Amino acid sequence: MSFEAAPGMDELCINTIRTLSMDAIQKANSGHPGAPMGLAPAGYILWSKIMKHNPKNPAWLDRDRFVLSGGHASMLLYSLLHLCGYAVSIDDIKNFRQIGSKTPGHPEFGHTSGVETTTGPLGQGVANAVGFAMAEAHLAAVYNKPGFEIVNHHTYVMCGDGDMMEGITSEAASLAGHLGLGKLICIYDDNKISIEGPTSIAFTENVGARFEAYGWHVIKVEDGNTDLKAILEAIEEAKNEKDKPSLVILRTHIAFGSPNKQDSEEAHGAPLGADEIVLTKKNLGWNYEEQFFVPEEAKTVYKTAMEKGEKSEEEWTDLFREYSIKYPELANQLLDGVTRFVEDGWDSCLPVFKTEDKPIATRSASGKVLNAIAEKFPCLIGGSADLAPSNNTYLKCSHDFQKGSYDGRNIRFGVREHAMGAIINGMILHGGVRPFAGTFLVFSDYMRPSMRVASLMKLPLIYVFTHDSVAVGEDGPTHQPVEHVASLRAIPNLVVIRPADANETAEAWKYAIKSNSSPVALILSRQNLPILERKDSPEGVSAGGYILKNTEGKPDIILMASGSEVSLIVEAEKMLAEKGIKARIVSMPSWEIFEKTADYYREWVLPSDVECRIAVEAGISMGWEKYVGPKGSVLSIESFGESGPGSKVMAKFGFTAENVAEKALALLGKA
């Protein structure tokens, strides 16, 4: 693309971004002006001259994706959204960082039109962008046909020095280079300033060489503030590189144009100050005194970009209409994936396990269920952090997602849990795919930041966490989760399901597939568990907690548990029955689901007039107190585990039917 513009017009449009950013941050008395001022030229060129997007339909399937990984530079994005005609008004700009505003401190998906993902924790956006590019590559490989490139767009991500320092960026960039994601373009704001001062105090590596080693195409622009032609040509060169992701290193000056704060950490995370803004505007040749002013000439330039986007979508719509006629099955399949449509009766594919079947680990049952679902849902795609054989997450109906075979549905994430969590965020945000990811439960710690952001964005992702307790055994306390289930339950909007047997596992997957506004974490056992007999309640996982076995009349005590410990309380109930004790058995696979049921249902399952209660879970007791009440007790683990055979470790910590029965008798005063 040639670089053509009316004399001074590009500079006017760029300075409009800068002044809007300065004014909004000053009015809020909060924010980060330096990055928006330095990145304004790249943002302007990208959004007005290169990107394929339509403000009138921000969800257009074949739009280019843009991720602002350094979310603290949000005023850059909000200014661009406003100028390009998205539903971000000048009043929204004026209400930057205020309660209820469309312009929160960091961009939030689902809150502001045109924002593709929630960013803020550094590095997350870079990994999200890798996920966007992976989804695009997969859908293009599956659905494009000769003459019908219905999926053909780029993913652009802007990041800064902080993103480059975070380990998650390294993991994601390594995988992107391995996969050869040619439609991924990262624009790196190399301004050499961090909050504490110049980056040289902690960050002196050769970033370009690092990315070249990852397998990226690296382009350097020495002047990212005034050499607009070089910026444009660098991005175009990146677009022309088909076999590698590209890193465009822009050498910029933070707070460009500020006489006293350019190249200073003072401009990183605080307003410039009213006096400095006056000086900066004068220095930039900004001849308008009104705050939040958008010149008519700038509006005209951005309007041209809007019209170009509308035309691009119209052309794509015509192409997709023809595609739908020639390839109706594929077109419907793609639309089902985009809308996450689930047809009635789909769950008939789920396996049913019988009580007479041999005991089976819930991780193994999960693998059987997952593969049955994969046959019905072509949009299901995912993998593990080098643990597919242990997590049972390999889809037998497909092959590996690799460079040259992007149509594969098995992703080899490698030992990269941090990046894996954020990558699947990007994949589901892209649309058209339903990702899952697996690892050992103890390593969910590495994914926690991504899971938290996914929960904030209400993304219906599926996490497969196996090896769920000290029953892992010989690997010892480093691999034995103790506090992890409780810590995951602490994340708002994350649904945690710890199934007790194979059938609860099937029901857990059913819930996860139907979920549309919450991520779901499946907590699965390594050890074999019996198939439980369930006669007294059909609700199962769909109710979160239910009566597995009831008594005649009022129970003397309620035994409740999740996961593998449910089979323990089943055996304990038999021992108590021999002593004339009536015990109700309650399986509690998911607190989050249980809490959403009606008050009368929760009272029916856990009647308030039965005060003798014992909860059993091979982890810390935190949270169980609300279910056992003041007169109940919890059999838990309040320390780290120990290396040894799993069954013996469980026994050492008191997880035997005999111990449960003894504690019940003691609680009843009949020991």
Helix-strand layout with pairing:
Elements: H1 9-28, H2 34-50, E1 65-68, H3 74-83, H4 90-94, H5 124-143, E2 155-160, H6 161-165, H7 167-179, E3 184-190, E4 193-194, E5 197-198, H8 207-214, E6 217-221, H9 228-240, E7 246-251, H10 274-283, H11 296-326, H12 328-339, E8 360-361, H13 362-376, E9 380-384, H14 388-391, E10 400-401, E11 410-412, H15 417-430, E12 434-440, H16 444-457, E13 462-466, H17 484-489, E14 495-497, H18 502-514, E15 520-523, E16 528-529, E17 546-549, E18 557-561, H19 565-578, E19 583-587, H20 591-595, H21 599-605, E20 613-616, H22 625-628, E21 633-635, H23 646-652, H24 657-667
Parallel strand pairs: 1-2, 2-3, 3-7, 6-7, 9-11, 9-12, 10-11, 12-13, 13-15, 14-15, 18-19, 18-20, 20-21
Antiparallel strand pairs: 4-5, 8-16, 17-19
Helix pairs in contact: 1-2, 1-3, 1-11, 2-3, 2-9, 5-7, 5-15, 7-15, 11-12, 13-18, 15-16, 19-24
Fourth CATH level, the homologous superfamily of the largest domain:
Thiamin diphosphate (ThDP)-binding fold, Pyr/PP domains
Sum up the overall morphology in one term: elongated
Task: Report, as a whole number of angstroms, the end-to-end distance.
Answer: 84 Å
Average pLDDT reading:
97
Number of domains: 3
